Hints:
This protein is α+β, with helices and mostly antiparallel strands. 19% of the residues lie in helices and 18% in strands. It has 2 helices and 3 strands. It has helices spanning 38-51, 81-85, and strands at 5-10, 17-23, 26-30. A 3-stranded antiparallel sheet has the order 1-2-3, with helices on one face. A hairpin with a 6-residue loop joins strand 1 (5-10) and strand 2 (17-23). The longest helix has 14 residues, at 38-51. The chain is globular and about 40 Å long.
Amino acid sequence: MTEARALLVMADAPGAWTWRIELDGRDVATAGRSYQRQRECQYNVNLFLAAVPVAQMAEGLVSRPRLRGLHLPGLARSARPEAEAEEPPLAPAGVRAGAGEP
């Protein structure tokens, strides 16, 4: 029986950590995010590995990455005209910019 191997690696962002699981030399799972600290990364890969034995496989499921906060190069703001028409959010009542400064 082949064992999975958990690898912690430095992500592209300076000082960020990520994890991946290898099985027979193939990546079979990767972290969905990066972590600022190596110990956070290690903790989260351990949580993932603890969940694997009780996980249930679904048939016909296709995994697609989440694209939260994705900014594609070359995509100008003008490609989203509705975003330009929006007014910036107002501060809640009683809150002033620079509050607490003399």
